[in-house]
Structures are given as structure tokens and as C-alpha cells.
Amino acid sequence: MASAIFFLDLKGKTLLARNYRGDIPMSAVEKFPILLSEAEEESSAVPPCFSNEGINYLYIRHSNLYILALTKRNTNATEILLFLHKIVEVFTEYFKELEEESIRDNFVIIYELLDEMMDFGYPQTTESKILQEYITQESHKLEVQARPPIAVTNAVSWRSEGIRYRKNEVFLDVVESLNLLVSSNGNVLRSEILGAIKMKCYLSGMPELRLGLNDKVMFETTGRATRGKAVEMEDVKFHQCVRLSRFENDRTISFIPPDGEFELMSYRLNTQVKPLIWVECLVESHSGSRIEYMLKAKAQFKRRSTANNVEILVPVPEDADSPRFRTNIGSVHYAPEKSAIIWKIKQFGGGKEFLMRAELGLPSVKGDDEHGGGMTGGFGGSMGGVGQGKSKRPINVKFEIPYFTTSGIQVRYLKIIEPKSGEPCTDAEGRQKPVKLVVDPGVFKHHARLSWLLTGLVRCAGTVSNAYPGSLVT
């Protein structure tokens, strides 16, 4: 529960404010920039909430704005911070860009939105698609319908009634991100997969969807046998449309989806994985006058898969010049604005390895201090010694692999239930309609900190093995 919401510029000047409860003096916001400055001096990591004289300050920063909530009560800080992020999301839908100028130009509609999104300090409707049905904007003018849509007071506030499509479709996208910590000898010290399931639903009426995954806890709870691999998800977070009681009971993900695009759930898995692209880097400095890089990149995934749009960014001294490159695949160029060499490979087949050699001049002795006079090794520690310099920036590796997930998560089924009969949708002959999923390329990120402080950032697409290319048509 929040007593007041403020929009401030970076200097702490109030651009717009909405006082919901009247129990906090509006002058309390004047102390915010001072308190924030003091907190920044004490610690480099400033907390998103702090207290002063019995008033709790909770804030987020977006673009050139501070969005601040004040309350005297011992409220749920996570709830208020989530609401502030929802404000950013809704306002961005309305104004395209949320910044100081858009606040000044649209203060009338902002007050209307704040009144609909929060009542007496309690969050209410925060779905932008529902708000846009009865709060519209044309040339900074507000138009409000005489009666709000039923969805505002309906139990299903995230979806309007009366939606109709000539062709019903469901799209599913699995996005996974891997954080990987690797030692200098190539051992994986820590690995964590952060995943999300995103959907696009274009369905008529008020359908109910049921999604089943190869969830290890579900198999253990129900006593069912699994033929393939089961994954154990942790820290699962669902969209508000998911029936949590049903999931806690039998691990079935049952929901009435919002119309359009949304994130159904996010999850975390602790599992041991290996880097999908293994990079070895050898750096040799020659008398401080030039520096030579020798890179070897190897794909450690199956041959049937191919990594697309591979980009390897190798940091070099800021004063490097006269670059010369040699490689057996792709293209290499020097980016002085990034002080880096960028090696691009359009397609990187599984099990293959490629080499690249680069040589740059060092007009000053600065490069010799940073990189040392010897040789520095990269992934796997197979290149001799480690870096001896004081400043070593990370190597970044980016790529995409279509139809690939590291976690092994699978969609066992996706059913659409007719709201009246409660039965799965069937065709004219009584057979259940086939479920086909359009699986878009996702994102797979990989971070590795190694002997030469080489950090690999790997991006690849994710998919589920049970999915079929196409779309769900009813």
C-alpha cells in the first residue's frame, strides 16, 4: 500500500504527484534527493527502499526519471516496487517513450491512469490492454467511455469478453539464459539456468488452456512414470492468469490467457552444463611495439545443430592501431570505439573449430603494462600462463542456435478447453484437435569468468522437443 506516488527528474524536482491517502506531507519528497545522495556516498549499491523519520521511500529509476512511492505503513516493498514497474510498462504503452517530456505533455491522462491503477493506495487494474479500452489518447486528449468494460470488474481482469478471431492461433517461445562460472583449468564451478515461457494467444471467447511440462515434482507427486528426462524447476513465477491452487495440487498449469503476447512463467534450474562454444585465446606482446592474438573457437554441441550469427568480441588496448587479421572463416574488423576486435561467423556447425589470428601495433608503452610481456591463456587454461596485467576486460561471445535448450524442458501437452462444456476442443468427428506450436528463436546466455578474466556471453535459441512447427488452429 502506497500513500503517494511521485515523478521526479534527476535533480529531484517534482514533475507530477498523486496523493492517495493524505497521511504524508507532500514536503517529504524534498528530502528524497538528499537521502539518496547520502546513501550513494555510503555504498556503491544503493537499496531501492529506505526509511527516514517514519516514512518509507521506495523508488525505481527509468530513463531520466525517478518514480517514487511514499508510505508510513510497514507495507510489502516487493508489491510496491512491482507496481512502480507496472506504471512504467503501462505508460510506455501509451506514450511510447516514458521520460520527462512525456510526463509534462500528458499529465491529464497520467492522472486518469493513476486513479484507475491505484485506489486509496491499493493497486487495482494494471493491464495496459484493459486500460486502453476505456482510457484513450489522441493528440494528448483524453476520451473516457461512459461505462468501463466488464473486464475491469470481472474475475478475469486481464482479458476482455467478446474477443473473436477468424483463425485461432497459439504461439509459444521458450527463452533460457545460462550463467556459468568456469575456473582457469576449464572446470565448471557454478551453473544456473534462468528460463521463461512466453506466449502469443489469438483465441476467440474465454478459453481455458492447460499446459503440461516434464516437471520432476509432478511425476513424483502423481506417481506417474516418465519415459524421458524430467527437470526440477525452482523459483517458479507465474503470470496472474495461472490458477496457483491447481498447480500446487497436481502441477498442472491451467489458465485463461490474456489476448496477445505475455510471459506465462519464469523458472530457475541448477544443473551442470558445459560451454557450448569453447574459446582459447593466446596473447603475445612483442617488445611493447605490437601485440598478437591467436584465437581458437570450437563448437561443443552436436553436429546436427548449427550456431548462427556468431560474434566474438576480443578486447584490445585503447591505443592499438594498424590491425591485420587472418582467419579461415567469417570476417574480422577492428572497432576502435569499443577498443575491440570483432570476429563474425555467420554459421558455426556443431563439432567444428576455427582459428583467427590478429596483430596490432602499440604506439605507446601503455599496452605493455596492461597485457604483460608474456603470453596469456584463455578457456581451458591450455595456453600456458595467465594474464599478468592490471586491467583485463572480458571476451564476449554471442550466438544463436535454433531449436535447442540446455535444460531439456519439454511440453508434454497443450489443451484448449471449451468454457461451456469443460471438454477439450474436438473436430466434427469427435477427435481432439492437434496442437501445433510455433516456436520462435529464444535466447540462451552464457557467462564464464576464466583465468584471463575471459567472460563468454553466449546467446542461443531455445525450443521444446515436443513442439511441432506450425500453429494451433481451431
Automatic annotation (TrEMBL):
Q: Where does the chain cross the membrane?
A: none
Where it sits in the cell: the answer is:
Cytoplasmic vesicle, Clathrin-coated vesicle membrane
GO BP term, example: vesicle-mediated transport
Per UniProt, which keywords does this protein have? Cytoplasmic vesicle, Membrane, Protein transport, Transport
Q: Which InterPro entries match?
A: Adaptor_comp_med_subunit (IPR050431), AP2_Mu_C_sf (IPR036168), AP_mu_sigma_su (IPR022775), Clathrin_mu (IPR001392), Clathrin_mu_CS (IPR018240), Longin-like_dom_sf (IPR011012), MHD (IPR028565)
Record-linked Pfam families: Adap_comp_sub (PF00928), Clat_adaptor_s (PF01217)
Q: What name has this protein been given in UniProt?
A: Clathrin assembly protein
Give the signal peptide range: none
Record organism: Byssochlamys spectabilis (strain No. 5 / NBRC 109023) (Paecilomyces variotii)
Q: GO CC terms on record?
A: clathrin adaptor complex; clathrin-coated vesicle membrane
* Organism taxonomic ancestry: Eukaryota, Fungi, Dikarya, Ascomycota, Pezizomycotina
Report the sequence similarity comment from the record. Answer: Belongs to the adaptor complexes medium subunit family.
Describe the location of the MHD domain by residue ranges: 167-447
